[in-house]
Amino acid sequence: MAEKSLLDVQIVPATASDYDEVLSISDGIYNGVDYLPFRYHEWVRDPQRRMFVAKSGGKVVGFGSYLLVDGGVTAVVQGLRIAPWMRGYGIAGVMQQFCFDVLRSEHPEVPKVRLTRGEDPPAAKLNKYRLVHSKAVISVVIPNDQLEDTIKLLKQRVENVDGKAPVFSRSPEEVRSWFENSFNAEGLFPKGILVQDWLPLSNHRSNLELLLQRGVLWCYSNFLKSSTYNSLHANQEPTSASLPHSSSLPNTFITSDSTCEFLSLGTPPISVPLEDGMHRYDIDLFGIDPVAAKAHILHQLTEALRVLPRDGGMVCLLYVEEILRAELTQFCQGITPFLLVKEQLVLEMDI
């Protein structure tokens, strides 16, 4: 039966008209916080992405895509899914091999593929791929009627920790300047990997525009270990308005051995199938300082509420270094956990 099913399957480029059928095979994926319903048409328009559907009997039974990143030398495989009634017949492997064949044919300059997975991937996959990096995942659900109280709770916990962690939202121009002039990749991305909303990128500067186009909120904090920090920020509240603009303070992003940097990237909240009014909000955190991490989470959530629909709730997904898991889980105590995955793995394979 498996052989017959594979013989009946055709793989063709996906189009905008396949949207409804792709969604029909995606019910329940990621426990109701699937990003694809929101991203699909955006992906169709992306010239750096190729999308494919598997069809059997004229109906969509599978979907997959890849995106060229890192200046065109890496392909990221995303969105793979198979219709529930067709799983177990090897269609996923056939689709993946089809993507690799297209890559080799159309982009022979691409030597490797990269992807993200949750915990406990199949042993066969680990035999083919090398593990590049992993992060802890902490997920909570915040219904609309609990948003205000949750922010108050987290604000109290941030204010009660020792030390100050001013967090500043950065404009696209300031982010570009930072990458060009003082970007400390080793300090924030020791593995050379920047994962944003499950999209695994290297810290190659060519990926910067891709992230800026996605409307990501960049937030940054920097602890100066000398008295210079206190003189610059004395009596200032941790808000973006309190930070001097980069034109008046050239070292807005200060990078040296005497500093402790922390960066967070927040994806704009997107509507998900979980229930009416529910949105997904991903916060990727880079750095290992727990005080800064807590302040960044509070700042990102506060900013997200500015653009969240009035009656909206959210599932918030936090991605942090494993060393911060215990403390940030405690920080989120009292907020309803959301069952998703506990770990995010970044895998690579040469093709």
UniProtKB/TrEMBL annotation:
This is Histidine N-acetyltransferase. It comes from the Eukaryota. It comes from Xenopus laevis. Keywords: Acyltransferase, Transferase. SUPFAM superfamilies: Acyl-CoA N-acyltransferases (Nat) (SSF55729). PROSITE patterns: GNAT (PS51186). Residues 9-154 form the N-acetyltransferase domain. The lineage of its organism: Eukaryota, Metazoa, Chordata, Craniata, Vertebrata. One of its GO terms (molecular function) is acyltransferase activity, transferring groups other than amino-acyl groups.
